[in-house]
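Quiz preparation item.
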């Protein structure tokens, strides 16, 4: 994105900073590093588990999008986040400094840390009890909660079909590697420019694609999480995956926010 000569320097500097950070984030994920535990146990995973996990993720997304939005929304402190955004927005309009721009990301980072703690504790608890695949709706609910909070902290909504498409792209991108990650990042950036659905868009197909990415990445650890007591080791990875999702979502929403500041 190019900035005009009359654009305030703080916006340009923050844009360059977030772009560099995103480049480093993507660079680290160009190749997938297979955990040692995964190498040792991958032959033990039943062939049918991938299909079962695909279905569980699809069902979880549909359930929350269609019926569970209100439940997730109750945990967001939505009105307070919207008020905090307006306060930060007003302060930035007055000061127009890097510090006032960073107030938005500080708020989002604080939300992310809380969600990581909750996700990790939930994952370990489920693992101790030997709950793996049944944990999927909880994991998806936590992921959507984290993204919804990030959206609100940067002044965006999350309820529309367009925003749900963007959110599914973020989750897919956060869990992808290599050329798949690059393509998903490109599609997310394209959406941030147009804020419109692609031609012939199908929500069910996008959910299916996102579910496939998640089940591919989480397959072994969800299998381990389903083993009582031992499953705690797999449950720990819930926090690792949540960190990936929240970091990537924060980068994209910050870029999107700075784009709106630039256009004002």
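Solution:
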């Amino acid at each position: 994105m190019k900035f005009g000569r009359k654009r305030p320097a703080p916006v340009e500097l923050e844009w360059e900073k977030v772009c560099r950070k995103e480049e480093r984030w993507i660079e680290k994920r160009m190749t997938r590093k297979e955990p040692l535990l995964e190498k040792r146990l991958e032959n033990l995973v039943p062939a049918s588990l991938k299909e079962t996990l695909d279905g569980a993720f699809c069902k979880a997304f549909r359930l929350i999008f269609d019926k569970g939005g209100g439940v997730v929304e109750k945990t967001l402190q939505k009105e307070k986040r919207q008020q905090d955004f307006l306060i930060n927005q007003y302060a930035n309009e007055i000061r127009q400094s890097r510090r006032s721009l960073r107030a938005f990301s500080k708020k989002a980072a604080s939300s992310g840390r809380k969600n990581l703690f909750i996700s990790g504790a939930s994952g370990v608890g489920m693992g101790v009890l030997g709950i793996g695949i049944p944990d999927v709706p909880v994991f998806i609910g936590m992921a959507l909660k984290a993204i919804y909070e990030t959206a609100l902290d940067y002044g965006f909504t999350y309820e529309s079909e367009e925003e749900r498409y963007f959110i599914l792209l973020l989750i897919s991108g956060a869990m992808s590697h290599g050329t798949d990650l690059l393509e998903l990042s490109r599609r997310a950036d394209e959406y941030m420019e147009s804020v419109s659905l692609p031609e012939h868009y199908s929500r069910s197909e996008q959910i299916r694609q996102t579910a496939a990415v998640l089940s591919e990445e989480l397959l072994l650890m969800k299998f381990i999480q389903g083993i009582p007591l031992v499953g705690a080791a797999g449950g720990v990875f819930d926090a690792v995956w949540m960190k990936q999702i929240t970091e990537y979502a924060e980068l994209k929403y910050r870029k999107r926010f700075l784009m709106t500041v630039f256009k004002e």
